[in-house]
Design a protein that fits this description.
The protein has helices spanning 2-21, 42-47, 72-76, 92-103, 110-120, 122-125, 138-144, 148-158, 190-197, 226-237; strands at 83-89, 130-133, 176-178, 201-203, 214-222, 242-250. By secondary structure, it is of the alpha/beta class. The chain folds into 2 domains: 1-47, no CATH class; 51-250, Rossmann fold (3-Layer(aba) Sandwich), CATH 3.40.50.
C-alpha cells in the first residue's frame, strides 16, 4: 500500500513539474519524463560508461592491449597518489553532468555521482580510513557558493548500499586548505598546471587525525593529476601513510 501511494505521489509530482516548468535534462536537454527523480534523465545516466580495463595500477588510465601494471607516464614519473580511479573519461554525458554541477549549481547531482564513484572506485575505498575533499580557495568558494568536490565527498562519506558494496560510512576530514589563489587549470599546459598549484595547499589542524592513515582525496576532474599530486605530497609530508584518489572523471592520456 505504501509503495503504491509513493508511486502515485511521484507520478503526480512528475506531471505537475512537467506542466509548470517543462524541465529539460541538464545533460542532453531533452524534456524530462520523470523530473521528480532528478535533473538528468535515466538514459543519460545509463550512457556513462566506465573506463575500459586493463587500467594503470596507479593513475587509472586504460592500458594498451592486454598490458598490466603501470602506464608509461607513471613509470617515468614518481606519483604521490598511490591509486586513483574515476567514474569514466571526461567527455560526453559525464562532462555535461559535471559542468551542470560545477557551473550551473545543480548540486543535487553530487549524490548520484558519489554513488557511481562508490561502485566504480570500490577498490580505492576498500580499507580507507577517511575521505578528504580537494579544497577551493576562499575567494573561489565565495564566488561559486559551494565546493563541488566537498559535495561529492560528503555523499561518498555518508555511504549507502550499492550493487558491489554493503552499506558503509567513512569520516570526511577537511585536512587541506588552499593557501594561494591559482589560475583555473583549464587551458594550461601540463607543465604550467604543476607550477600553477605548487605550494598552493597546506594541511589544517584536522590532518592530525589522518597521520598514519589511508585517505582518499576527492575531486571532480583529474586532467594531468597535478592538483591531486600536490595535495598528496602535502598530506604525506604531514604524516599521512597512503593517499588514494577518486574523481568523477579523468582526462585520459594516450600511451606514449
Amino acid at each position: 500500500m505504501g509503495g503504491g501511494r509513493t508511486g502515485r505521489a511521484e507520478r503526480l509530482a512528475d506531471a505537475l513539474l512537467a506542466v509548470l516548468f517543462a524541465p529539460c535534462c541538464a545533460a542532453c536537454r531533452a524534456p524530462l519524463d520523470h523530473p521528480a527523480r532528478g535533473c538528468v534523465c535515466g538514459a543519460c545516466w545509463q550512457s556513462i560508461l566506465p573506463l575500459t580495463p586493463p587500467l594503470c595500477d596507479l593513475c587509472g588510465d586504460p592500458l594498451p592491449g592486454m598490458a598490466l601494471g603501470r602506464c608509461p607516464r607513471c613509470r617515468r614519473s614518481p606519483q604521490a597518489v598511490d591509486r586513483a580511479r574515476a567514474i569514466g573519461p571526461y567527455e560526453g554525458t559525464l562532462r555535461d553532468v559535471i559542468h551542470a554541477l560545477k557551473y550551473d549549481a545543480r548540486r543535487s547531482l553530487a549524490r548520484p555521482l558519489a554513488r557511481l564513484l562508490r561502485e566504480r572506485g570500490a577498490d580505492v575505498l576498500a580499507g580507507a580510513d577517511a575521505v578528504i575533499p580537494v579544497p577551493l580557495h576562499s575567494s573561489r568558494r565565495r564566488e561559486r557558493g559551494f565546493n563541488q568536490a566537498a559535495d561529492i565527498a560528503r555523499h561518498i562519506a555518508a555511504g549507502g548500499a550499492t550493487s558491489d558494496l554493503t552499506d558503509y560510512r567513512l569520516p570526511i576530514v577537511h585536512a587541506l586548505r588552499r593557501v594561494r589563489a591559482t589560475a583555473p587549470q583549464a587551458g594550461l599546459s601540463a607543465g604550467r598546471r604543476h607550477s600553477n598549484v605548487r605550494d598552493a595547499f597546506a594541511v589544517t589542524a584536522a590532518c592530525q587525525g589522518a597521520r598514519g592513515r589511508i585517505v582518499v582525496l576527492v575531486d571532480d576532474v583529474s586532467t594531468t593529476g597535478a592538483t591531486l599530486d600536490v595535495c598528496a605530497r602535502t598530506l604525506k609530508a604531514a604524516g599521512v601513510a597512503e593517499v588514494r584518489a577518486l574523481t568523477a572523471a579523468r582526462v585520459v592520456t594516450s600511451p606514449r
